[in-house]
Amino acid sequence: MRAKHNEIGTKPEEESYLHNSTFGKLDVMVKEENVYNEEPMHIQNDNIRCKEELEIKEEPLDFTGENFHSHQIVHTGNKPYHCSHCAKVFSSNTNLIYHKKIHTGEKPYQCTQCNKGFRSNSNLISHQRTHTGEKPYQCSQCDKAFSRNNHLTIHQRIHTGEKPYQCSQCDKAFTANSTLINHQRTHTGEKPYQCSQCDKAYSQIGHLIKHQRMHTGEKP
Q: Domain C2H2-type: where (predicted)?
C-alpha cells in the first residue's frame, strides 16, 4: 500500500525530522493521521522551530512548513560548503558566510548602548538584554528566567536529568555541548586560552580570566 502524505504535505521519509522540532508559545496541537507519526505536532501560524538550533544559536529561527524541510538538510551531516580561509566545512551557505566573518573580522551589527559589534543580528539582540535586564525565557518548572533561549534549554535538563553530550573517551555525559568540549580537553591536554601577559595557557576561558586578574589587580 502506498504511504499517504500528512496534512502539511511532508513525505514519509521526512517524518524523523519533524520529531526533532520544538515550538514556542504553542496554541494549537494537531494530531497527524499518518501511520508514520506516533506523536502530535505543535503548530502556530504554520511556524516550526528546529530543536537542533536551540543550542547552536542564541535566537533560533522559526520556519514555515515548506522551508522547514529544506532547512533540516543542515542536520543530515552533509557539508558541501568549504571555507576558502581554513579547513572548515559547513552544511549551508548561510553558516559559511557567518563563519567567514571570523576571518574578516566583520561585525556589522553594532550595539547602540556600547561599542560592541556582532557578526549576527541575533547575537546583538541577545547582547542588548545585558543592558535592559530582559529575561524573556521562563522555565516552566521553576522561577528561573533567562535572556537567551539556548540557556533555558540547557537549564531545563536539570529538571529532566537529560545529558545528551557523551564523552567518547570516558563514561561522562553533560547537559551542554560547551561543557563537553571543556571536559574533552582533560583528555587531549589542549589549552587554547593563552595569557597575553605571560606564557600561561588554560583549557577554559574562565580560568584565564581569573589568572589575568593577577596582572591587572582587579578584584571580582
A: 81-108, 109-136, 137-164, 165-192, 193-220
Q: State the cell numbers at 212.
A: 589575568
Q: Cα(18)–Cα(39) distance, rounded to whole angstroms? A: 10
| Assigned C-alpha cell, 159 | 529538571
Residue finishing a domain among 30, 51, 75 = 75
Cell of 80: 558541501
Can you name the residues that pair with 173 across neighbouring β-strands?
166
Range of the domain at 207: 190-216
* pTM score: 0.53
167 belongs to a structural domain: no
Q: Please choose, from the candidates 72, 60, 79, the residue with its C-alpha nearest in 3D space to the C-alpha of residue 120.
A: 60
Residues 6+ apart with CB under 8 A from 134: 147
Residue 32 one-letter amino acid:
E
pLDDT along the chain (220 residues), means of 10: 40 35 34 30 50 51 61 72 89 85 90 91 91 95 93 94 95 93 94 92 91 87
The single-letter code of the amino acid at 153 is: T
**In Å, what is the CA distance from 160 to each residue of 20, 139, 148?**
17, 12, 19
